[in-house]
Design brief:
two-stranded parallel ribbon; 2 domains; seven-stranded parallel beta sheet; 11 helices; Rossmann fold; about 325 residues; alpha/beta; 11 strands
């Protein structure tokens, strides 16, 4: 990749929220590689490093004034994330406070500070939990099914309303599962299974899942900082090709230099087994398809993922 591709963005000054999260750490390193001036906002900090700001809990009253001065673009990664076992007494309230109230509060203060562009990391879950036939496109009718995805959609709508009213250039990115070195969640659990279980019961699964390597996501965000056609867009993006669960397992095993045999268990029995173990959501995701239109992002803003899937997995699994 040549730096000249990003010569315009070199003059941008970008605020990254959630800078110490999984995506945030990779994004800040990626921006620094291309000499993008960044300011990092995190919830708590004891490092006292330059350009790292502690903002505390994100909600509708968080004060962002100290970190927005001379910022051209905000990349808002911070939020209340979706987890399989939500422990909050009122999970929907937590998503509302952080993902909706907190996001629009930041965006309003960004407008007052003269910020030009606001990039919001949403989720493909806004489109739905699975595809049956046609892959998801950004313009498909939304079908969120849980408090997390509902809060992301509500935040998207509020941002676009604010952008229409004030001129703030809003860019929404809806990624699928993001993976990479030190990734947590579903990806790390599957890597653990492949590493520790020599036989897995997914031989009959014939699904397809779109994934997104974290550095491909970073490259997309960098592309969106000042690309003229990105303003006002909802962008869905993924890696160069989709993987079935068996293909995913075999690729992980190859990177781990191990063998994992797939037992051809009937899908109905596999789903029943998941229910009995209290893992029905996880098993459903491993048997169902969730695909994204690969060409949509190229049509909209001319972007394509720079790192191919095989290389991305080699970099991710250590």
């Amino acid at each position: 990749m040549k730096f000249e591709k990003y010569s315009m963005q070199k003059e941008s000054r970008v605020l990254v929220t959630g800078a110490n999260g999984f995506v945030g750490r990779h994004l800040c390193a990626y921006f620094e590689k291309y000499q993008i001036q960044i300011r990092k906002a995190i919830r708590e900090d004891d490092s006292r490093k330059n350009e790292v700001y502690e903002v505390g809990d994100i909600c509708g009253t968080t004060c962002w004034d100290p970190v927005l001065s001379e910022i051209n673009c905000v990349v808002h990664l911070a939020g209340h994330v979706h987890v399989l076992q939500e422990k909050s007494v009122k999970p929907s309230a937590s998503f509302q406070v952080v993902n909706v109230d907190g996001t629009i509060n930041l965006a309003r203060q960004a407008v007052r500070a003269g910020v030009k562009r606001f990039i919001f990391l949403s989720s493909i879950k806004v489109n739905g939990e699975k595809t049956e036939g046609n892959p998801f496109c950004a313009d498909d009718p939304p079908a969120p099914s849980d408090p997390y995805s509902m809060s992301k959609l509500e935040a998207e709508k509020a941002l676009f309303r604010l952008g229409k009213k004030t001129g703030l250039e809003v860019v929404v990115i809806r990624p699928p599962m993001v993976y990479g070195p030190a990734a947590k969640g579903n990806f790390s659990r599957l890597v653990w299974l492949v590493k520790n279980m020599k036989v897995l019961p997914f031989g009959n699964v014939k699904n397809k899942r779109s994934l997104l390597y974290v550095n491909n996501l970073c490259d997309l965000i960098l592309h969106c900082i000042d690309h003229e056609k990105a303003a006002g867009q909802v962008i869905t993006a993924c890696d160069t090709h989709d993987l079935s669960t068996p293909e995913l397992i075999h690729l992980i095993a190859k990177c781990l230099h191990t063998k994992c045999y797939l037992l051809p268990m009937p899908i109905n029995l596999l789903l029943l087994w998941g229910q009995l173990l209290g893992k029905n959501t996880e098993i459903s995701r491993l048997t169902e398809s969730l695909q994204i239109d690969h060409d949509e992002v190229k049509r909209k803003i001319g972007w394509h993922p720079p790192v191919k899937v095989n290389e991305a997995f080699i970099r991710s699994i250590v």
